[in-house]
Structure formats: C-alpha cells, structure tokens
Structure of tRNA dimethylallyltransferase:
Amino acid sequence: MAALPVVVVLGATGTGKSRLALQLGRRLGGEILSADSMQVYKGMDIITNKVSAQEQALCQHHMISFLDPLVSNHTVVDFRNKAEPLIKDIFSRNKFPIVVGGTNYYIEALLWKVLVDTKKKISPAPRLTVDRKEELEKLDGQELYHRLSQVDPEMAAKLHPHDKRKVSRSLQVFEETGVPHSMFLKQQQQEEGGGPLGGPLKYPNSCILWLFADQSVLDKRLDQRVDAMLAAGLLEELRDFHRCYNQQKVAENCQDYQHGIFQSIGFKEFHEYLVTEGKCSPETSSVLLEKGIQALKQVTKKYARKQNKWVRNRFLQRPGHNVPPVYGLEVSDLSRWEENALKPALEIVESLLQGKKPPVDPMTMEPDINENKRSHHMCELCNRIIIGDREWAAHTKSKSHLKKRRKLESELCAAGSQETDGDSDGPKDMTEDKR
C-alpha cells in the first residue's frame, strides 16, 4: 500500500485555498493543518482570515488560535516541532494531512529538511523564554553584519547587509551551536535526497495544488474582500485588539510591528487611526480611516504577487529532483469552481490515496541552472548591494539605475567636451604667439 500523501494547497491570498481544503477534507477524509504564521495567535480572526468556527466543525483543523497574542518569539522551528507530530498522528489514524498555506517558510520547513535547531534560553521572568535572534535584531545592522562576516564569511556573502532577520538568524545559529550556519546548510544539501536549495524531502508522496488567477481579476477580488472584512466587523476587532494588547505598548513607546501577531497585514496599516481615534476631529479620523483602508488593499495585493512569485521560484523553478509535483488549478472564474478547481483536485488526491498516477500531468517550468540566487553584487553607481543574479539583472534595467547611468554618461560627455575645447584653445594660442 502506498504511503498516504501530504497535500499542500498553495495560492495567493483570495484564491480560495481554505475553501478547497475544506471540500477535500470532508469528501476524502483529510484533516487540515494551517501553515499561516498569523493564524497561530488567538484573536484577530477577521484580519487573518481564519476559517469560522462552523467551518472548523465540518472538518478537523489544526494549528489555529493556540498562542497568546503577546508571545512574540514563536519561530518556524516551533511551528515545525508542533506540526510534525500532528502529521504523524493524522497518518496513524489512516487519514491524510492537508497543509494550507500560508507562510512560505513554514511550508518549506514542513516539506524539506532545511532548519537548524538551536536552544532557547530561559528568561529570569517566570514561564518565559528568550529568543536570541530577537535580541540580536535590536542591535545595529552594520555591527551585526560585521560580526557575521567574521564568524561565517560564506553566509555573509549570501545575505544582504540590511536583512537583519536573516543575518541575526545566522549569528544565532553560530552562537548557540558553535558551527557556522553555512556549514549546516551545506551538510543538509549533501544528504541523500538533498538538493541545491536544501535537504531531502521529508514526505516523498506529497503534492502541491496551486490555485492561481488572472492578476487583474484577483486584484478586484481582494479589494472586495477588504470591503467584506469591514462589513464583518473589522474595525471593532482592531479596536478591541488595540485596547487589550497594543495601547499600553504605544504609550510606553515600545510598540514593535516586526514580531508576533503585531506584524500581521492589516493591523499596522490602521496604526494612525487607532492611536488618534477620539483624540482628533471626526474629519481627521475619517481621513485616517480611509488611508488605512486603502493601505490594506494595496499591501494585500502586493502580498498576493509575492506569494505567486514564491511558488514559481521555490517549486516550479526549484532546481533538483526533490520537489513535489505541482498541479495548477485556474480559479479566475469562480462560477466554474467545480469544473476548474474541485473536480480535478479530487481526482488528483484520490489517485494518490489509491497509489495511482494522477490523470493530469503536473506543471513544469525549466529551472535556470546557471542562476545564482545568492550571488553578491555591488552597484557603485547607486551605492547598493544586490543579492541574486535575477535581482541584479532587474536592478541594472530599473528606471532609477538607468537614470543615474544616463546622468553619469552626460557628465562624462560634458567633461570630455570641455577637455576638447581646452585642446583646441592650445594651438590657437600658439598661433597667436607666433604672430
């Protein structure tokens, strides 16, 4: 009997991932595991787009609303360590997990051996742990990068000096293990089944269902979803959450929108509105509210593009053989959901459950084997460091870079012209001297 599959439902926000997962779970006996870094926290149900209690009752859900909102040091390692035993338990009951993403690195941590375990220090405060990475992120970015360059130059060369999160993580790995982060990653890649971007695939029978839609259609759908959130009570949810968890932090000037649930899309966009409500004129409050709504719509659409780019780069174009098959499901026209999404998804998963080859072929996209995603480039013209061949190529074609290059060429041309003028004056002066 074939091993039960891990089914991963991916797609940009607003494509219907939760809907499809629920339908698959109910019809085929699966259980749903959320891989969303914000849905692990209690509260903020509307803004994080959690499935309702009624929907959760229809099919067993895991990894939703189990953390206190004030916990800020929940990491991807913590997520993996909690999710893997759940997957094992689901398999033991002859069911299969449906992982719904979600957060990119959470999903990668479940599918591949790509993480390095580090120890957490116990804080003097009772029942609290200290995340060294979070401590490091509070330090000066240049100092952090200099430290990493000293202890792990190979890793430093792959990271942008301004990427404090990744630089801090690599420093944390070295401090808590005594081994350079780059060495751990190299060891994982060299394991049997490993590849250029990480260690072996942990669930060989896994598959990806990628929901995608025309971008203009999705943009309109996301704007409508924000409007629906407002109608469902988004402002009341934000006010309550701000009053319970954020108001005191703001008053003490220790608010941090970079960690925990406070970094959730939709909360920080309404910061000005929340902290000034009742303290300014109704007209000003109305302007700030509209500003928050438009910011939420804009950042949601931007995030959707980022999610699709990640699927293409990390799955469709991922080099190596240890990549699950990706089956594309086009969901631009929701009136054809049954035909375009549900029916083919059911056929694919049913085939895997029966140990058979799915009736449709997975999507393919040839990886660029010559592309180095971690190459280090310094643009002297723009005084910027660019990481990655593709990013470097995009930078050299960007408007800002080309504008500076044209300006420099113009200045050099003007300088050359002045030198030429000076040379022509020389012979003329000599002629006059002869006279």
About this structure: The domain at 121-190 is CATH 1.10.20.140 (Histone, subunit A). The longest strand covers residues 30-35. The beta strands are 7-11, 30-35, 61-62, 96-101, 121-122, 129-130, 207-212, 326-330, 376-379, 384-387. The radius of gyration is 26 Å.
